[in-house]
Amino acid sequence: MNLFDPDKAEWPFEAQIDAPDGAREYSQYAKDNGDDTVSIISWGENGPMVKTFPIEQATLKERPWELAEKWYALFREIFGSYLKI
Fold this sequence. Notes:
This protein has 1 helix and 5 strands. It is α+β, with helices and mostly antiparallel strands. It has one domain. Strand 1 and strand 2 form a beta hairpin. The N and C termini lie far apart (36 Å). The model has no long low-confidence stretch (mean pLDDT 91).
């Protein structure tokens, strides 16, 4: 696993982590582990590292630019060459 260039299929979400002490952490690369935990790629003292949190502390979202590309692809599939975007 190359944490400097994560596989977007393996890390499909961005995440905001809300710690019980009020601290927040954001990551562009996150995944649901399927065991009530979420892992993110975060920057540590020695470079990128994986951190794991309880799912209750996480808000996962699809990365907006990838979600937009899915909508554009669907639009092109439905409307084809009728409309140009």
